[in-house]
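How a chain folds remains the central question behind the approach discussed here. For one protein, we set the task of working out the structure tokens from the amino acid sequence alone. The sequence in question and its structure tokens are set out directly beneath this paragraph.

_____
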Amino acid sequence: MTTTGPRLEEITPANLDAALGIHVRPDQEHAVAPVVKSLAEAYVHPAAAWPRLIVDDDRPVGFLMAFLDIDWYEDGRVRRSGLWRLNIAAGEQGRGYGRFAVESVAAELRRRGHDRLYVTWHPGPDGPEGFYLGLGFRPNGETSGGQTVGVKELA
């Protein structure tokens, strides 16, 4: 089935190899885990993980995984949802698929009644900070695993 514009697909046996074939540019590999690790994490955290293949006209162009209602500090005080992973294929970057991914996660979180979208990013000049800031995320002063925590209001 051919469609116009990007869409999300659930990961299934039929598209698993396509998802596993998504690779970022070599200079970005330090900043985002490969899809295979994300899918392993989704397998062991099925209630929290929302993995999706990004497809445009039946061509796999990226992968995203959201996290849903995780216990942020692991003490029951704060639950958060947001973008866990974003891998846009090396040859597909700069075409709006990253923006589409973030907007898709935001729409899913709104549908679930959330008013904030969280993300973490690798700090430094070679990280995606400019991308996330350009989409309206703002650092909230926290770090998680050495990464900057950003939040975007969904209201």
